[in-house]
Design a protein that fits this description.
The structure holds 3 protein chains of 3 kinds. Chain B is mainly α. Chain B has 19 helices and 3 strands. The N and C termini of chain B lie far apart (67 Å). In chain C, 81% of the residues lie in helices and 0% in strands. Classes of the chains: A alpha/beta, B mainly alpha, C mainly alpha. Chains in contact: A-B, A-C, B-C.
C-alpha cells in the first residue's frame, strides 16, 4: 500500500452547487505534492475534505492507514486568523499539542519542550515569548508550520503557505519542506505559482472542479491540460450551476 | 374613537403626530445605518443619551423650576450633546486605539448609561419631581407630549428630509462605496458629519415615543422591512418611512386603547416596537421575492415540476404507444397515490390523455418531452466533450440539469457543440 | 442600627482603612458583615463572573450579543414562570426559585441564539440587524407581559437599574455559586475556549466543537446575568462584562493574563466604587447609586489607562523600532 492519499468519486457540494465533482486519484507516499488550479477550483476544499473538516456529498477521500489526526498536520490560510489575539508564539505552537491532551488535562513540561524544538526547526526559537502581532508575515507563516511540526506528523498539509511572503522566507520554507520529505514525510501544498512547480514539487494534482490530472509534474502539466484547467470552456458549466444554485435557494422556480 | 380624531383631538394629536415624526426620521437614518452595516450603533447612541437627559432635566429643575413645560428642551440639548460625545468617543476608540467596533459600541453603551444612572441617583431624592420626568424616557410615554414638542420635532424631521433629498445622489455613492466616493470628489467627511448629527437627532426625537432602551428597534425594523421588497434605494427609503409611520400610529393607538378601555398603563415604546418588529418578521417571511416562505414554495414547486417532466419523459421513452400504469410505477419512484395525482394533473393540463389504465402523450406533451430529452442529451454531450466526464457518468448530472437549463443556455449549448445529432450513448437528439 | 455600621460617616480613605482592618475579623467570624461589605463582596463576585465571560466574548467580538441576551432574559423569566406555575403571591421577576431560575437561563440562551441564527442563516439577514431585531422584539414582549402580570408599570425601570441597597446575604451565596461555576468552567475548558476563539478551523480539525463551546458560553452568560440583574440591573452587568476586559487588554497581551487580571480589575473597581459611594454619603450627604458609581470608576479608569498608554508608547517607541528592524531582517 504505497499510496498515502486516495480519493474515489469525490463530490463536494455547497448549497447544491458542485465545488468538486467526481474526483478520483491516488497519491504515493514520500512525495511533495502540489494542488493547483484557478481561483474557486476547489483546492482548499479538497484539503479540508481530506482532513474531514468538510463532509463530501458523495464519494470519499482518505489518508489510508494514517487516518488518526495525530499523524496529519494542517497549516491553514493566514487570512483566517485574528492576528491581534493575545497569545505568544509559544502559546500558538503549544496548541498543536492539544490534540494529545484530553478534555481536562493541562499542558506539561514535555509539551513545552516539544514546542521549543519545533520553533527551533523553523528558526524561531528566540521569538517564543513574542506576541503574534509583533511578528512579520514570514515569521507568522513559520510559526504555523512549527505548530504543525509539533504534532510529529507523517503528513503535512499547507494551504497557500507562500502567499504574501518575501522570496527569502519562501526559499527557507521550501528547504525545510524538502528536508522533511527526505525524512519520509508526505507533503501536500495548495500552490498558486505555476512557474515554481517543477522546481519545488515532484507530484501534482491539477483540478478545476473536475480532476484534470494527477501524477508527476512533467506528465500532468502539459499545454493541453493547462488549457483545460485555466481555459474558458467551463463558462457554460458555471452558468448552469449558478442557475442551479439560485433554484436551490428558491429565487427562481 | 375613529382614526381622524387622533389627529384633531387637542390631547391626542400631539402624541400621534409626535410619534409619526419619530417614525419618519428614525426610518431614514435607520436605512442609512443598515446599508453601512452599522445597525447597532443606534443601540449604543440611544443608551448614551441617558446622562444628557438627566443633566438636562436637572438643569431645569435647579435653575428654571417654574418652566416645567419647557424642560423638554433641556432633555433635548442634553441628549444631543451626550449622544454626540458618545459618537466621537466610539470613533476615537476605533481609529486611534484600535478597539474592535463591537467592543467599543458595548463599552460606550454601558458606561454612558451607567454614568447617567449615577447622576439620576443623585437627583432621585433631591429633585424627586424632576426625577419622574426622566423615567418616562426609558420606555417612552407619548401621551404627555404637547404641541410644542411637535413643532420642534417637525422642524428637526424636515431637516432630515432636506438632507436626504438634497444629498441623495451623493449619499447613494457613499453608501455603495465610500472610497470611490472620495476619489470622485464627493465631500464624504462633510456628509458623514451631517449624517452623524442627524442620526443623533433622530434618536433624540424618538426618546419620547419609544424610549432609550428600545429605540434601536425602530431604527432597524423599518430598514429590514423595506429591504425585503425592493433593491432600489429610493423605494427603500419610501417603504421604510411608510412602515415606520404605520407602526408608530398603531403603537400609539394601542397604548391609548389599553389605558382607556382596560385601565392598563403601558409605556408606548414596547408597543410600537412589537408592531414594528412583527412587520419586519412578516416581510422576512412573506416578501414576494426574498421572503422565506415564498422561497420554500418555489423550491417545492420546482420539485413538482421535475417529477412531472420525468413522468412525461418516461412515457415518451417507453417502447409502446400506450404506457400502462405499472410501467410508470416501476420507473418513477413514487407511491401509487402521488403518481395518480400527478398523472391527473398532467391530463388536466393537456400534456397527456388517458385510455383505460394507460397513458399517451398529446401533441403538446410530445413537444415538451422532446425538449426535455433534447436538453438532457445536449448536456451529456457538453459534459463528455468539454469536461472529459466519463460516458457512464454523464447521465446522472444531466437528469438534474435538464429541468434547469433555460432557452438562452440551450441556444449557447447548441452553438458551442455545433448542433450535435447524437449523445454520448449514441441516442438521437431531438431537434429544436 | 446606623450607629452599629462602622462605615457610617467615614470618608474614602477611612473606608479603605476600616475595610482592610475588618477583613481578618470577618474571616475569623468575629463580627457581622454589614451592608457595605456585603455590597463589596457581592459586586466583586459579580465582577469575577462577568469579566471572565467578557474576556472571551470581547475576543470573539460578540459583546453586542451579550447586550442582546441581557435583555432577552426577561422573556426567559416570564416563560419559566408560566411553565413552573409557581405563584408566590403574584409575579415579580426578582423573586425566583432555583428551578425557575435555571429554566429561565436555558430558555433565554436558547431563544436568543436560535432566533438570531435563524434570521442570519435562513432569512438571510445581516448579523447586526438580526441581533437588534431579536432583542428589541423579545424585550418588548417581556416588558408588556411583565407589566400585565405584575400590574407594575415601573418594572422596566427596575430591570434596567436594579437595586443594590436591597441586598441580602442569600444573594452572596447565589453569586458565590455562580462565580464558582464560571471559574471552574474556565479552568477546566481553558484550552478549548482558547482554541475555539483563536482558530475555529484548527479547532474543528482537532475535533473540538466550536458550536458546543459557544453555546456553553451563552449559557454561562445567561446564568450570570439572571443571577446578577436584580442587584445592579442589566446595563451594569454589561459594563462589567466589557469594561474590565477592555482595561486588561490595554496592559496585558496574554490570554491567561487577561483571564487573571480582568477579574482583579473588576474587584478593585467594585471596592473603590462602594468606598466612594460611602464617601459621598458621609461627606456631602449625597446618596448615590453604587452601581452607577462603579461604572463611573470604570469609565474614569479606562480613560486614564488610555492616556497612560499613549504616554508610554511615546517613550518606548525609539528602542523598540531598532530591535525590531534587526530581527525582521530574518
Amino acid at each position: 500500500m504505497n499510496c498515502i492519499l486516495e480519493a474515489q468519486d469525490l463530490c463536494i457540494h455547497y448549497n447544491k452547487t458542485p465545488i468538486l465533482w467526481d474526483v478520483s486519484f491516488k497519491v504515493p507516499k514520500h512525495h511533495m505534492t502540489a494542488i493547483v488550479g484557478p481561483n474557486g477550483a476547489g483546492k482548499s476544499t479538497l484539503l479540508k475534505a481530506s482532513l474531514q473538516i468538510i463532509k463530501p456529498f458523495s464519494g470519499s477521500i482518505s489518508f489510508g492507514r494514517c487516518n488518526s489526526d495525530n499523524h496529519i498536520a494542517y497549516v491553514p490560510q493566514k487570512e483566517s486568523i485574528d492576528w491581534d489575539f493575545p497569545v505568544s508564539a509559544l502559546d500558538v505552537v503549544l496548541m498543536g499539542r492539544y490534540g494529545r491532551l484530553k478534555y481536562f488535562q493541562r499542558v506539561k513540561a514535555a509539551d513545552k519542550e516539544a514546542a521549543m524544538q519545533a520553533l527551533q526547526q523553523v528558526g524561531m526559537a528566540s521569538y517564543s515569548s513574542r506576541q503574534i502581532n509583533q511578528l512579520s508575515g514570514g515569521q507568522q507563516q513559520r510559526l504555523f508550520i512549527a505548530r504543525a511540526l509539533v504534532q510529529k506528523p507523517d503528513v503535512l498539509l499547507l494551504d497557500e503557505p507562500f502567499s504574501g511572503i518575501d522570496m527569502a522566507t519562501e526559499k527557507l520554507l521550501i528547504e525545510l519542506f524538502i528536508k522533511l520529505k527526505n525524512e519520509g514525510k508526505s507533503i501536500f501544498i495548495v500552490h498558486h505559482d505555476l512557474t515554481t512547480l517543477d522546481q519545488y514539487f515532484d507530484w501534482v494534482i491539477l483540478i478545476n472542479t473536475r480532476l484534470i490530472g494527477c501524477g508527476p509534474v512533467k506528465e500532468v502539466m502539459t499545454q493541453e491540460n493547462i488549457q483545460k484547467a485555466y481555459g474558458n470552456n467551463l463558462s457554460l458549466f458555471e452558468e448552469a450551476h449558478h442557475l442551479s444554485k439560485k433554484q436551490a435557494e428558491g429565487y427562481i422556480s | 374613537m375613529n382614526v381622524l380624531e387622533f389627529f384633531t383631538d387637542p390631547i391626542l394629536r400631539a402624541p400621534t403626530i409626535g410619534c409619526l415624526l419619530m417614525g419618519v426620521s428614525s426610518s431614514v437614518m435607520g436605512v442609512i445605518s443598515m446599508l453601512r452595516k452599522r445597525s447597532l450603533i443606534g443601540e449604543a447612541l440611544s443608551h448614551a443619551t441617558y446622562p444628557g437627559v438627566v443633566l438636562g432635566v436637572s438643569f431645569f429643575g435647579v435653575f428654571f423650576p417654574s418652566y416645567q413645560d419647557w424642560s423638554f428642551l433641556g432633555v433635548f440639548l442634553g441628549a444631543t450633546l451626550s449622544s454626540y460625545l458618545a459618537i466621537k468617543v466610539i470613533h476615537i476608540l476605533e481609529t486611534k486605539y484600535n478597539v474592535n467596533s463591537d467592543a467599543s459600541l458595548c463599552f460606550v453603551l454601558s458606561t454612558f448609561f451607567g454614568i447617567g444612572l449615577l447622576f439620576a441617583s443623585h437627583i432621585q431624592f433631591s429633585l424627586t419631581f424632576w426625577y419622574q420626568k426622566i423615567q418616562v424616557y426609558l420606555y417612552g410615554q407619548s401621551a404627555t407630549m404637547t404641541d410644542i414638542h411637535v413643532i420642534v420635532y417637525a422642524f428637526l424631521t424636515s431637516l432630515t428630509l432636506l438632507f436626504l433629498i438634497g444629498c441623495y445622489n451623493h449619499l447613494k455613492v457613499i453608501l455603495f462605496n465610500l472610497e470611490y466616493a472620495k476619489t470622485i470628489g464627493i465631500k464624504t467627511n462633510l456628509i458623514e458629519g451631517i449624517s452623524f448629527f442627524l442620526f443623533v437627532v433622530s434618536i433624540v426625537i424618538g426618546l419620547r415615543s419609544v424610549g432609550i432602551v428600545l429605540m434601536s428597534g425602530m431604527l432597524i425594523a423599518p430598514a429590514v422591512f423595506a429591504r425585503q421588497f425592493t433593491e432600489r434605494l429610493s423605494t427603500l427609503f419610501l417603504l421604510a418611512i411608510l412602515m415606520s409611520l404605520t407602526s408608530a400610529f398603531l403603537g400609539n393607538y394601542f397604548s391609548y386603547t389599553l389605558s382607556e378601555k382596560y385601565l392598563i398603563t403601558m409605556p408606548t415604546g414596547p408597543l410600537i416596537v412589537i408592531i414594528g418588529t412583527l412587520l419586519a418578521f412578516f416581510a422576512l417571511l412573506f416578501a414576494p421575492k426574498r421572503g422565506f416562505i415564498f422561497r420554500k414554495v418555489r423550491i417545492w414547486n420546482f420539485k413538482r415540476k421535475c417529477i412531472r417532466e420525468n413522468i412525461l419523459k418516461s412515457i415518451w421513452k417507453s417502447p409502446s404507444q400506450l404506457t400502462d400504469f405499472s410501467y410508470l410505477r416501476k420507473n418513477i419512484g413514487l407511491s401509487t397515490w402521488f403518481l395518480k395525482r400527478h398523472l391527473k394533473k398532467l391530463e388536466k393540463e393537456g400534456w397527456l390523455r388517458k385510455e383505460k389504465n394507460s397513458f399517451a402523450l398529446t401533441c403538446d406533451g410530445i413537444k415538451k418531452s422532446e425538449r426535455i430529452v433534447r436538453l438532457h442529451r445536449l448536456w451529456e454531450v457538453y459534459l463528455a466533450e468539454h469536461l472529459d466526464v466519463g460516458v457512464e457518468k454523464v447521465h446522472k448530472n444531466a437528469e438534474e440539469m435538464e429541468h434547469i437549463i433555460t432557452p438562452e443556455l440551450e441556444k449557447k449549448l447548441t452553438k458551442l457543440l455545433d448542433n450535435p445529432t447524437k449523445d454520448p450513448h449514441l441516442q438521437p437528439i431531438p431537434k429544436e | 442600627m446606623l450607629s452599629l455600621n462602622p462605615y457610617w460617616g467615614v470618608n474614602f480613605f477611612g473606608f479603605l482603612w476600616t475595610f482592610i482592618s475588618r477583613i481578618p475579623l470577618l474571616i475569623s467570624g468575629n463580627c457581622q458583615m454589614v451592608q457595605d461589605e456585603l455590597q463589596i463582596f457581592v459586586l466583586s463576585l459579580m465582577a469575577i463572573s462577568c469579566s471572565l465571560i467578557g474576556v472571551v466574548m470581547m475576543l470573539k467580538k460578540t459583546t453586542m450579543l451579550a447586550n442582546s441576551l441581557s435583555h432577552t432574559i426577561l422573556v426567559g423569566i416570564v416563560i419559566a414562570y408560566l411553565l413552573s406555575f409557581s405563584s408566590q403571591g403574584g409575579f415579580h421577576p426578582f423573586s425566583l426559585s432555583i428551578k425557575t431560575f435555571i429554566i429561565a437561563a436555558l430558555i433565554s440562551a436558547l431563544i436568543t441564539t436560535f432566533l438570531s441564527e435563524f434570521l442570519t442563516k435562513s432569512l438571510k439577514l445581516q448579523e447586526d440587524a438580526s441581533i437588534g431585531l431579536v432583542f428589541t422584539f423579545l424585550f418588548s414582549l417581556g416588558i408588556v407581559a411583565v407589566t400585565v402580570f405584575s400590574r407594575n408599570a415601573h418594572i422596566g425601570t427596575e430591570v434596567v437599574m436594579g437595586n443594590v441597597d436591597a441586598l441580602v446575604s442569600k444573594d452572596l451565596l447565589w453569586l458565590l455559586f455562580i462565580a464558582a461555576v464560571n471559574i471552574s468552567l474556565f479552568i477546566l475548558c481553558y484550552k478549548e475556549y482558547l482554541l475555539t476563539t483563536f482558530d475555529p478551523v484548527f479547532a474543528k480539525f482537532m475535533k473540538i466543537s466550536t458550536t458546543f463551546f459557544s453555546y456553553l458560553l451563552m449559557l454561562q452568560l445567561s446564568i450570570t446575568v439572571i443571577g446578577s440583574f436584580r442587584i445592579v440591573g442589566v446595563i451594569m452587568v454589561l459594563s462589567y462584562i466589557i469594561g474590565p476586559a477592555l482595561l486588561a487588554r490595554l496592559f496585558f497581551h496574554q490570554f491567561t493574563k487577561l483571564l487573571l487580571f480582568a477579574p482583579l480589575f473588576g474587584i478593585v473597581i467594585s471596592i473603590i466604587g462602594v468606598a466612594l459611594t460611602r464617601h459621598f454619603l458621609s461627606m456631602y450627604q449625597m446618596p448615590l447609586s453604587t452601581a452607577g458609581m462603579c461604572i463611573a470608576v470604570l469609565a474614569v479608569s479606562y480613560f486614564l489607562a488610555l492616556i497612560i498608554k499613549k504616554r508610554k508608547k511615546s517613550w518606548q517607541l525609539p528602542s523598540l523600532d531598532q530591535q525590531d528592524q534587526s530581527e525582521k531582517a530574518l
